[in-house]
Amino acid sequence: MSRHVIVGLSGGVDSAVAALRLIEAGDRVEGLFMFNWAEDEAGRCQAAEDFEAAREVADVLGIPLHRADFSAEYRQRVFQPFVDGYAAGRTPNPDVLCNREVKFDPFLNHARRLGADCIATGHYARVEVDGPGWRLRRGVDPGKDQSYFLAAVPQAALGRTLFPLGDLYKHDVRELARAAGLPNHARRDSTGVCFIGERDFDGFLAGYVDTEPGPIRVADGPLAGTDIGRHRGLAFHTIGQRRGLGIGGVRGAPDAPWFVVDKNMTDSVLWVSQNADHPALRPRLVDTAAPQWIGPAPRLPLTCRVQVRYRQTDQPCVVTARSDGLRLTFDTPPFAAAPGQYAVFYDDDICLGCAEIDTLPAQATEAA
C-alpha cells in the first residue's frame, strides 16, 4: 500500500537518496526543507545554499518541495540550552536536542498537517515494530550509524518515521545518487552545527557566552599545582581535549600531549594532565540526569552497553537508579565522559534510550 511520505530534504546526498528509495518503493513522496537558523549578521549560515541544493534534487526526482521555518523553535529549544550549557561549564550536544525538539516534533506535526502518513530522513538507523510499539536499531554501516543522535526521540515519533538508509553503507548511497543523476551525489557531507557551520567555533561562542580567562594548572605528577599557561575561558574547553590548549614545551615535563581533566568554574582553573589514563579521563562511575527510555523503562539494575560520545565504542555497564537519575558503573571506563554529553544505552544493536551526563563522581584532580 502506497504511503504519503514527507522527506526532510536538507540538500545533502543522504536525504536525497532517502527520497529516491521511497519513490522507487512506490510511495507518494514530497520534500520539506527546514529553516532552523535565521541568517546572522555576517550572512554565514548556509541555509540558502542548502535550499538550492534541495530544490535541484526535488526537480530531478519530480517531487514537490515545501519550506518550513522552525528557527523560533530551534532557538528556544536547541540553541538556548546549548548556550546555557557552555556557560555552565558543560559540553552540550545540540544534535540530540535538535532531533528530539525539532526534527521529530515540529517537523512531524507540520508533515501531518500536509496530510502525510509519516516522515522520513536520511539518518543511518533502523526502526522496527516491537509488539505494540517500535524499537530503534543501529544502522548497518558502523562508520555512519546515527542512532546515538536519535536516542531521545520518543517512541511515538519513531512509529511515524522511516529511515530508508538504515540498511546501506555510505559508499552505496553515493553510488545510488550518482546512478540516478542526482546533482548532489558528490556533495561534501555537512559538519558541525547549523548555526556554527565551518566558522571558528571559539569565535562564535564568544559572542554568546561570557568568558573569564584563568590559569591552566597541572593536576598530577611532579608539577602538580603548577600553572603552565592561561586559557581564554573554560567554555572553550572540554574534558579530554588535547588540541588548542596553547601549551608549548613545559620545563620539567616530558614532550607528551596535555589533556583537559577538569574545569573549576568557581576560580576559573583549567586542570590538565599528561596522563591519558588519569581517573578523570576514564571514570568508572558516571551520574546522569533522569533517563529517556524509548520503550517501557527497563528494570534496574540493568546490564547493557553504553556509549558516552558519538563515534566512541560502547562499553559494558551496570545501570542503577539514584534519587534524580542514574549511576553508571563501568568495568572498562570510557574515555572523556563529559557533563552535557549523552550516555546512550544499547542491548546489542537495539538503542534503549539515553540520559544526559550530569557529574563524574570519580573524577578528582590530585591538586584540586
Give a description of the structure.
This protein is α+β, with helices and mostly antiparallel strands and 368 residues long. The protein folds into three domains: 198 residues, HUPs (Rossmann fold), CATH 3.40.50; 63 residues, Adenine nucleotide alpha hydrolases-like domains (SH3 type barrels, Roll); 75 residues, Elongation Factor Tu (Ef-tu), domain 3, CATH 2.40.30.10. It has nine helices and 18 strands. A six-stranded antiparallel beta barrel has the order 12-16-15-14-17-18. 43% of the residues are buried. The C terminus is likely disordered.
Element layout with pairings:
Blueprint: E1 4-8, H1 13-24, E2 28-35, H2 47-61, E3 65-69, H3 71-87, H4 94-103, H5 106-113, E4 118-120, E5 125-130, E6 133-138, H6 147-150, H7 155-158, E7 161-162, H8 170-179, H9 201-206, E8 214-218, E9 227-231, E10 259-264, E11 269-273, E12 285-288, E13 292-293, E14 302-307, E15 315-322, E16 325-330, E17 342-347, E18 350-359
Parallel strand pairs: 1-2, 1-4, 2-3, 4-7, 8-11
Antiparallel strand pairs: 5-6, 6-18, 8-9, 10-11, 12-16, 12-18, 13-18, 14-15, 14-17, 15-16, 17-18
